Amino acid sequence: MTDEKAVWTLGRWHAKPGCADTFQQTWQAFATWTARNQPGASQAYLLRDDAEPDLFFSFGPWDDADDVAKWRSTPEFGAFAARVRELCDSFEPHSLTKVGEVS
User: Fold this and answer.
1) Torsion angle (degrees, nearest 10) of CA 71, 75, 78, 80
2) Which domain holds residue 46?
3) What percent of the chain has pLDDT over 90?
């Protein structure tokens, strides 16, 4: 992955009351499928807010924007999005490019 073309996806998810654990399991299964089946995908992370346990953030790097677009157009992504609509009050997807780093 070259930094010039690399893209990070970020999602902000707000699970409906009582759905947080199911959302977490659903995300985990889809992220595992993505890592195994989608070119350009590598790592994925899901973070849960300590103060607001129904709030989640997911993120991960991709080789380039074309890989993200292809992933988002798969039937599996569509099925995942439909399931998430049942489990979440809101979802905000983002595609980001790194512009700074501290190591």
Assistant:
1) -90
2) 7-96
3) 88
